[in-house]
Every structure is written in C-alpha cells, then in structure tokens.
Amino acid sequence: MPATETQRAVEAVWRIESARLVAGLGRLVRDVGLAEELAQDALVAALEQWPSAGVPENPGAWLMTVAKRRLVDLLRRRERYDRKLAQLGRELETGAADGTSALDAAAEEQIEDDVLRLIFVACHPVLSAEARVALTLRLVGGLTTDEIARGFLVPEPTVAKRIVRAKRTLADAKVPFEVPEGADREARLGSVLEVIYLIFNEGYSATEGDDWMRPELCAEALRLGRVLAGLAPDEPEVHGLVALMEIQTSRSAARTGPDGSPIRLLDQDRSRWNQLFIRRGLAALDRAHSAGRPAGPYAVQAAIAACHARARTAEQTDWVGMAALYGTLAALTPSPVVELNRAVALGMAYGPAAGLALVDALRDDPALAGYHLLPSVRGDLLEKIGRLAEARAEFSHAAALTRNGRERTLLRERADACAERLSTPAADGSPVQYANDYGRGEEY
C-alpha cells in the first residue's frame, strides 16, 4: 500500500478509535494526559509499521496492544510506582495462557463506560470553556491540534497550551476518571452538553473569518452528540441536543449561495433541506419527550427548530406556537439573547411592532452591548414597519460589530437596500417608506 494511502488509513482509524483507545487507557492509568501520550505512541508506531506491514485486520486492537506495551515499558522505568501498578504491568506483559488477560476481557466489557468517562472528564467544570472544547475535540473527537486551531481560527500554539494546561489542571484537581452519580452527574451533564453545543454553534455560524459556516465542526459535534446519546440513552436532554443539531444541520445546503454568501432562513429553498436529518431530529425529539420528564432547554430549542422543519413554506410556520416555546425557554433559562429571539418570533406572530417593543426594552441591557444581532434584529423590524432610515443605521451598526466577513457583507447590503428605497420616489413624489415582504427567522 502506498505511503500516502496508508497515512490516510491511519488517520481514518485514529478518528474512529482514538476516543476508545484513550478512554480504555485512561481507566487503567487514571491520568488523561498519560493515556493520550500512550495512545499517541501507538499512533506513531502505526505510521512507522503499517506502510510495510499493511493495515491489521483489527486496527483498534493493534493500537491498544502497542499502547499497553508502551505502558509496560513505562512501568519498568518507574520503580517508585506502587504495588498495584507494578502488578498491572506484569499482567499486561505476561497475559493469560490463552493470550488474553482478565484485564483485556474487562476492558472489552467496559468500553462504552470508558468513553462516557472520558467525555465527562474532558468536559469537567474545573476547566475553562475554551479548554473543555479543545480537550474534548482532542481526546474524544480525535482531532489534531492543527485541526482544532483551524476550526476556531486561533494559533496552533494557543490550542496546544490550552490542552496542556487542561491536562495539568485535571491532574492538580485530582479529577477522578469516572462518570459522576446523582446530582453531580446531572450538574456535569450540563457542562458536557454545553461543550458539544459550543462546538456545533461555532461551526453553524462562525464567530469570525470569511466563512459563514465550518461544516467540519458541526459534523464533529453531531457525532459526539450521537455517541453520547448511545451511551446515556435515558437522558432526555442528550436527545434534545441531538435533535436540535440534526434539524439545524438539515439546512446546511440551503444556507449559502454558490459564492458562499449567507441566505436567510425565510429565503432558503426548503427543497434543499435534508429530509433524512429532519427525520432523525424529529425522532430524537420524540425520544426526549417520551422520557416523561419536563422538557429541558435543549429539547425546547429543538421543538422551536422543528416548527421550521415541519413547515413546507415560511408562511406555514407556526409562529404563534414558536413564540410560546420561546416563552417557555425564557422561563427555563432567562437570558437577554433568548428574549431577543423571542422578539423575532413575536414580530412574525403578532406583527413587527410587537417584536420591536421587546427589542427596544433590551437596548440598554449590558449583556447585549456589542452584540451585533441586537441592531440586526431591530433593523429588520424597523424595515418592516417602514422606518427605513432607522433600519439603515441599525444594519450599518450591526455590520460594524460582527467579526464574520460574510455576515458583514450581508448586513451592508441590507443597509444599502434601505438607502436605495429611501431615495426611490413614490407616485406622489415623496420618498417611499415600505416594509420588505419577508421576515427574519432565526438567522440572517
């Protein structure tokens, strides 16, 4: 097999097997940093040996075997390791008579628990949000430091430092390699879901740069969500988050034009929405609701997304129901950003003046200072009721605030469109003041 072809095979295997490999090793050594080092050693061995020897029939088992051998070597060098680790090293080295140790058998039985432990460790609240995202993508997602850096448009050394600091923080805090129980698990699950959704959101609407979307981040977040749903099938909010991401992902092909420019939700060609993703999302939402517990924030957001997914046209959208769902979400997670989205739904359900009244009440909220979607939403509502001069100013303000190049261009175009309409004389010679014939959904 040519070297380049082998390298691609190694990369593919690593993306599939790395989480299970690091998780299994992490359970043995109780140290995420050490577990990743051993896994990386196994990856280097694969890159060295597979070009000549070929890809093994069971590459995951091959990697684990090599990693265990590296662990044995490490244990031999560390004479001060306690008796338990020394005994572990002897078992890993000798194995059972049939070539399979009891430890190997246990590892096979506990593989799903191991991955779940790894997710909870990587997303531990003791870490900053940035560190949790980087460590999760590295350990659970199998992404390289360079891939993470490119995904979030930050220098590779910055990501590398975050990962190193995160491992050190986990070690210093003596975070146990386990899935928490009871109330602690409930609290930690929120951190896990937050990290996965942060990754998805950055891919869905890039914070900065020249690309409107980063599909690879959306795909990775959705993959992690599906893994978590399989590992924690009784957690309704896990299914709620998966439902939300599936439905949002269904629109990907319709969200940009041929040149990569963004297309607003209500202007999208819905025939390009992926029905498979929609069906998966609605099924996940059903699983969240069937748990028999009150809907959490992710399930409510998924229900909002489902209002769009079920409507064949923008006009058929259940805006009244969506406004009510935003009210429920605001009660669950009070936030000015949620209120801003509720204003959009109110504007669509009851007229732009209703939405504008809520937006105006949010203008002095310090949490929204510098948030470009506030003037963006206000501009849209003002445009609809014919206050074009004010709308133009709001769109220009929003364009100055956003760090995403594609979004800046769109907002400037909307400001220019308002200016053009202002300069267009009506039949009686006065400037034309009129609203556009479409509204804003949840994206521009």
Automatic annotation (TrEMBL):
Domain (DUF6596) ranges: 188-289
Keywords from the UniProt entry: Coiled coil, DNA-binding, Sigma factor, Transcription, Transcription regulation
Coiled coil: 64-91
Disordered: annotated segments: 422-444
Family: Belongs to the sigma-70 factor family. ECF subfamily.
Domain spans labelled RNA polymerase sigma factor 70 region 4 type: 119-170
Protein name: RNA polymerase sigma factor
